[in-house]
């Protein structure tokens, strides 16, 4: 990969795959036809030991794509880290396999990096796979450790700051990705992008959403195959706890852990009523995982807090962390708008 256009950076597009052969044709055909100099980007498929014909299908139909076949399933976080190690680009763009991209998807997402050198992470605008009309949202960090609260943004085209970009199409400066240690592989999958963007913000590097960079996402194409619903519950719970333990300042850490305790207690009560003992078991497993790995988590926390340049107070002022009361209010308002068909 040679840099043929001095105004455009070289980009390595990494697609982690596990038994996703049925998604690959549309994904790779769209990548082949993007409006970007061919010598300025490469595509790497990282295969987590698929049992289908994903690797052979790619080798036969898309010989220009680099194939990294792993010895076991490292999950989304670990698979992307493996791909990043062989990436040649100045930037890395992580893309889900159950997607297809607009022809200007890549050229649009690089623009904020060129315009503002303090921007180190960009996310694209996600649309439904069938291209049905879908409004724009933004994400916030909440005291539960997850970015679940989203604000109605209407239909805008200018890029804007947000707490974290969606991991299904996320671009980051390779040097930053390497410097902060990549994705935390203890997450396996889900919320790893929240942690990545959160750590970048704490170091003073901005994350933006780029509405003009459009991709179409089937949604959970690999996820339903990768893990069961119960394991989904386990990964989500443990990852949100790890987010809290690593990234909040101490006073917010205590507050967030209390909120998390009450929230997870409510979840257990709910699953009792729904007669879902496996979900209850997986919430317990998540907490046991965190307890067993607490020394490692606290070691990572020490590094993150040592490198911190932005306080939680500043993130609150920027509107990236929401107080609990505002989180609840925004969730209610969003639900009303969705209910009314806006």
Provide tags for this entry.
Spore Coat Polysaccharide Biosynthesis Protein SpsA, Chain A; globular; 2 domains; alpha/beta; 14 helices; 342 residues
In short:
The protein is α/β, with parallel strands linked by helices and 342 residues long. The protein is built from 14 helices and eleven strands.
CATH topology of the largest domain: Spore Coat Polysaccharide Biosynthesis Protein SpsA, Chain A
> What distance separates the N and C termini?
45 Å
Number of strands: 11
Mean pLDDT: 88
Largest sheet: 9 strands, mixed
Question: What is the count of helical runs?
Answer: 14
How many structural domains in the coordinates?
2
Rg result: 20 Å
Assembly of the depicted chains: single chain
What structural class is derived from the secondary structure elements? alpha/beta
Poorly predicted segments: 220-226
Query: Helical residue percent?
Result: 40-55%
Question: Can you tell me the CATH architecture of the largest domain?
Answer: Alpha-Beta Complex
